[in-house]
Every structure is written in C-alpha cells, then in structure tokens.
Design goal:
Helices cover 51% and strands 12% of the residues. The protein folds into two domains: 181 residues, Triger factor/SurA peptide-binding fold (Orthogonal Bundle); 95 residues, Chitinase A, domain 3, CATH 3.10.50. It contains eleven helices and nine strands. A hairpin with a 2-residue loop joins strand 6 and strand 7. The chain starts with 8 loop residues before the first helix and ends in a 16-residue tail after the last strand.
C-alpha cells in the first residue's frame, strides 16, 4: 500500500459503528449523495474518493469492481459512510469546542514529509500523484484526522484508573502474571532422517567435543545456530518432547538424541532450573494501569459513538441509490 494512507484514519482512530439509515430520499439535491443535518455530502466528494479507490486497485494490479456488483456496492457504501462520518465529526467538533488551526495542519504535513520522504518535497508530491491526491485534498483529510484525534482526547480526558482497580485486576488474573520455570540450555538440531548424525554428535560431545562449535557447524535451528545452540527455554513453551527433557536434565548433563516434529535434538543443560514464581504487583502495576486505561478509553469512545449515531439517526438522508444497508455494522477495534 501507499506510504500515506489517510482514507480511513478517522474511522480507525475512533472505531465507530457505521449505522444504516433507511432508504433513499428524492429531496436530496442532485449534486449530493447525502444530507447530514442539512449539510450536503457532494457527489464530487464521493467521486473523488471512488477515483482514488480505483487508482489503488490499478496500482495493486487488481481489477476494479464493476458498477452494480456486490463488490462495487460495498466500496460505495464504505465511501459514503466515511464522508457522512466525517461530517458528523465536523459538526460535533463545534459542540465539543474542538478546532484545528492551519499551523497544526502544516505541522502534520511536515511530519509526514519528514517521516516518509526524509523531507523530500518531490517524493512527497510524486506519492500524492500515485494516489490520485492533490495537496489540498491531503490537507483536508489531515484536518479531519486531527479533528478525530482531538475528539478522542476530549471524550476520554476524564478517564482514570485507580490503584484499587489495578489491584482487583491483578488478583483476578494472577495466572497472567506468573513467571514460568526457565533455564539456559544449548541444543543441536538435525533433520529427522539424520539419526546417525545425531548419535555421532552425541558421541563426540561425550568424548570432549566442543558443543558450541558442533552446533554452529551442524545445527539446522536458525534461532540458536549462530549462538552455538544456546537459548533460554521456559516451561511449556517448547514442543512437549523437548520441554520434558530440557527440564529433567541435571546441570551440565547432555541428553540422548530427542525426537520431535522438527528432527533430532541433542540438549545440554547449562544452568539450574529457575523455579516458577508470581510476579509481584509492584512490577506490573503500570502495565496493568495502561491496559485498563486503554480499555476504559475504548469503552468511553464506544459509548460516545453510539450516542452520536443515535443523535444523527433521523438527521441523515441519502440520495436514491446511495443509502447504506439497513443493518448496523460492527465496531472496529482500535
């Protein structure tokens, strides 16, 4: 996909449900696809969005859906829903005292140029052309994105998580904060059809062979080969046959070849087993706080978006042929 993808940022940011609102209305002006509380969503805006979708298909060497097909109807519904939702945000921004300055748009444009194009203006302009965008359009969509971000911040600004809530979550989910038993091992992995090689390597190790050197030469495990076969294993996180032997060995002991779905392993225990233990609350307190904070913010914006859709439910009319499905879509994950 292209480096700058603004089309659905507002929807992805807020994760809002897209509600269907009945059939078409012949009173919508000819030059509009919808009216949102009296404000027109123009056919030109819709056409521009669909043209960009068509260009995106072309750039990805895909055939654009033909008009009248279910695939085309899906794209049409998405485009209209996006434009309608943008207008809802714009109107609600005024109620929330949210506004965006020209400087904020300038700064975000500069940020995009720097982040994706190293500040190269020509590359930025070429990318816009590839997407079928003008700079005016990108600025308009960046403004809409900033409005969405500010609405999100405004709606969730009062969300807090108390120490009591953190402690309750910790006590309810203690199993999630338990450190499993672990130990450091080395292993050599060879293919299933090379049992003879596995036996020979173990004999070499029993006779004083260098485990790390043999692992680097013969092991087929890409994750540990370069490190001489060394890795830290945690109880229950490797295949059962490997896991059982790795935690039964005495420190310094080398196993017989162990057969797993990946081949034959020779395992050496480098350390004693570190016993499983409960992670103290103090060590995960901030992690839990951020998790609960995100969940609460998501709930706050979900509730707000539900109220938003209900508020506008009878304030949106669509041009004949442009009304969305009558069912309510699912809320996107943030």
């Amino acid at each position: 996909m292209r480096k700058i993808q603004i089309l659905t940022l507002a929807l992805a940011l807020l994760g809002l449900a897209l509600a269907g609102c009945g059939g078409g209305d012949e009173n919508v002006p000819d030059g509009a696809v919808a009216l949102v509380d009296g404000e027109e969503i123009t056919k030109a805006e819709f056409d521009a969005l669909m043209s960009r979708a068509k260009l995106s298909y072309s750039n990805n060497k895909q055939d654009f859906p033909k008009a009248g097909t279910p695939e085309y109807r899906t794209l049409q519904n998405q485009a209209v829903a996006y434009l309608v939702q943008q207008e809802k945000y714009r109107q609600k921004a005024e109620d929330l005292d949210v506004s965006v300055t020209e400087k904020e748009v300038d700064d975000r444009v500069d940020q995009l140029k720097q982040q994706y194009f190293g500040g190269n203006e020509k590359q930025f302009q070429d990318n816009l052309k590839t997407q079928g965008l003008t700079e005016e359009q990108i600025r308009g969509e960046i403004e809409a994105q900033l409005v969405s971000e500010k609405i999100y911040a405004k709606v969730t600004e009062g969300v807090k998580v108390t120490d009591a809530e953190i402690e309750k979550h910790y006590n309810t989910h203690k199993g999630e904060y338990r450190q499993t038993a672990s130990r450091d091992v080395r292993h050599i992995l060879v293919a299933k059809n090379k049992k003879a090689l596995a036996d020979d390597l173990r004999r070499q190790l029993q006779n004083g062979g260098n485990f790390a050197a043999l692992a680097k030469k013969h092991s087929t495990d890409p994750g540990s080969k370069a490190n001489g076969g060394k890795l830290t294993v945690r109880k229950g996180e490797t295949v059962p046959e490997f896991d059982k032997v790795a935690f039964e060995l005495d420190k310094g002991e080398v196993s017989q070849p162990v057969s797993t779905q990946y081949g034959w392993h020779i395992i050496e225990a480098l350390t004693d087993v570190t016993a499983a233990k409960q992670t103290p609350l103090k060590d995960v307190k901030e992690q839990i706080r951020q998790q609960l904070l995100q969940e609460k913010r998501q709930q706050a914006i979900t509730d707000w978006s539900k109220d938003l859709n209900e508020e506008f439910d009878d304030k949106i009319t669509y041009q004949v042929g442009f009304s969305p499905p009558a069912t309510t879509g699912t809320t996107a994950d943030q």
